[in-house]
Amino acid sequence: MRLIPRWSLLGGLVAFALVQYYFWVFLPSVRTRPPELPTALRFYLILSWGALAALYVLMIGYISNDAPRRGMDTRVWMICVIMPGGIGAVLYFLLRQPILSHCPSCGASIEDHFHFCPHCSWQVAASCGRCYTSTRVTDLYCSRCGHDLASDHPPARLHAFSRE
Ligand SMILES: [Zn+2]
Ligand SMILES: [Zn+2]
């Protein structure tokens, strides 16, 4: 929810209101025949169309904030999501990259499974010195090979990073 910008919340409301206006005010004024559907069903359909339109706008807002965090091209993805049928939105969630963080030393993008910064070798996650499996900073022995982690002498920079 934090990732949805205010303009997109507002746009969602406007889209919802427009759909309501179109179906309740504009369409009956141009249509000569009375509607065939029972009122309850019509009510339900029009509300859900409105919700769908609002969801579209919210989705575009969400992607405008979410894509940069994942190092994905925001403009391309926002255009994709506007495509009809919601195909773009489905594709986005299938193809989106893991969230990137940044190396505290050099600022390079780091994926969450990295142990070391690929640009400056800053250690960003604890790992076993023998088998290189990820470990927790509080572990005393490697959960995979039983290696005594205290004998690895993890660098001070790792401790500083893990306290965040
Ligand atoms: Zn770095
Ligand atoms: Zn190990």
UniProtKB/TrEMBL annotation:
Annotated Pfam families: DZR (PF12773)
Keywords: Membrane, Transmembrane, Transmembrane helix
DZANK-type domain segment(s): 103-146
Parts of the chain that traverse the membrane: 7-24, 44-64, 76-95
InterPro entries: DZR
Name of protein: Conserved domain protein
Source organism of the structure: Acidobacterium capsulatum (strain ATCC 51196 / DSM 11244 / BCRC 80197 / JCM 7670 / NBRC 15755 / NCIMB 13165 / 161)
